[in-house]
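Deliverable D2.4 — example input (structure tokens):
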């Protein structure tokens, strides 16, 4: 719980108004979505093209 509080506190400490907070939260969310999407695509490609032992 302390970690969550620290993260939220740090976001508010670096901002001048609520719009800055929303910007930081949105950017972080988009980065997470892109990272998750990339991993899902990578897993799909790996499943579709498994390497054979002699490759």
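Example output (designed residues):
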């Amino acid at each position: 719980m302390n970690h969550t509080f620290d993260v939220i506190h740090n976001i508010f400490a670096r901002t001048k108004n609520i719009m800055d907070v929303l910007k930081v939260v949105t950017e972080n969310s988009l980065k997470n979505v892109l990272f998750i999407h990339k991993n899902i695509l990578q897993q799909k490609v790996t499943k579709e093209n498994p390497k054979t032992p002699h490759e």
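The helical segments are 2-13, 18-48.
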